[in-house]
């Protein structure tokens, strides 16, 4: 080691001596100027970073800190790095309640507050802090909203008219850059000949639900394979459902209740698996905001369940007609925002866009009371346009 140092010191002395001699020579001035310019250039090359940060501060595009108040349904998960995962910059996520005074926004998941498992954050709140109400249950399964009137600044949910709109799934044109996306393939006509006909996955069976009545009637006409808590048990993980569905021609994507924009992962799993979804939930017009009209079969397309059953059996016998429901797929990506990493990072990005603004959700109950459903037949609902980025 010492030997290496000695050699380097000798080399340095040599360079310095040469430099000193050069400085004394007539060419000294141009040489020093050149060296100076080179050093300056090197410095300037590194300057943009520094300069960039400064301008961001000036524009008030500073980073924000988002406090996740409760982990949804009490399931602790590691918080994502929004930059590494989604290329969303300027976000610091934390679930440490001690960070409350320093948080630009607090994300509150409805369920824990409604059941009393957690309390709202303490008042008085920091002056510029925003509280975000996050809920992915339908209005039928959302309790105790009246306690939350006038408390929140932003809503984050699957509804299109939310302040921060993030559905259970959506289609993007072309190849999506999202890590939660899959490119859809049209598949081949040959592969239409899937071994099984109709599948249904149900975890919460209740005879009072419209979907259960529908199931009882449909199974009088066609064979339905039932999976989930009351049927054949499922292997864990979303991937296993998609693998299962890819053996079927049809999948019953029946929502537990009927509400505007309430279209859950049931539909998107079927789309991903290339099984034609048979949907029961919001109106056909409402579904058509999210996917092409022929991408699904709506139970209301037929005057009777028997009519629907006949149609499914006809498609089963006529692959070219079944193809009509699948040939739209080429050229789309399907994004299924992963719970809850995608939601946290989206919330943070939206808070960052709104730094310095003020807003109050005056009545959550009114917002969530779902005026859309009764109107959606009469009102001119915009038709399907794939979602680019939001
Ligand atoms: C299951 O269904 C019943 C009846 O519709 C409902 O009251 C209950 O909240 C549901 N449970 C879940 C976890 O969705
Ligand atoms: C957020 O909502 C609260 C409660 O209504 C309100 O007092 C506060 O001014 C709002 N803050 C912002 C930043 O909008």
From TrEMBL:
Membrane topology (UniProt): Single-pass type II membrane protein
GO cellular component, one term: Golgi cisterna membrane
EC number: 2.4.1.-
Keyword match ATP-binding: no
Gene Ontology terms describing biological process: inflammatory response
Top-tier EC class: transferase
UniProt key word Transcription regulation: no
Gene Ontology MF term list: 4-galactosyl-N-acetylglucosaminide 3-alpha-L-fucosyltransferase activity; peptide-O-fucosyltransferase activity
Protein function: Protein O-fucosyltransferase that specifically catalyzes O-fucosylation of serine or threonine residues in EMI domains of target proteins. Attaches fucose through an O-glycosidic linkage. O-fucosylation of EMI domain-containing proteins may be required for facilitating protein folding and secretion. Catalyzes alpha(1->3) linkage of fucosyl moiety transferred from GDP-beta-L-fucose to N-acetyl glucosamine (GlcNAc) within type 2 lactosamine (LacNAc, Gal-beta(1->4)GlcNAc) glycan attached to N- or O-linked glycoproteins. Robustly fucosylates nonsialylated distal LacNAc unit of the polylactosamine chain to form Lewis X antigen (CD15), a glycan determinant known to mediate important cellular functions in development and immunity.
UniProt protein name: Fucosyltransferase
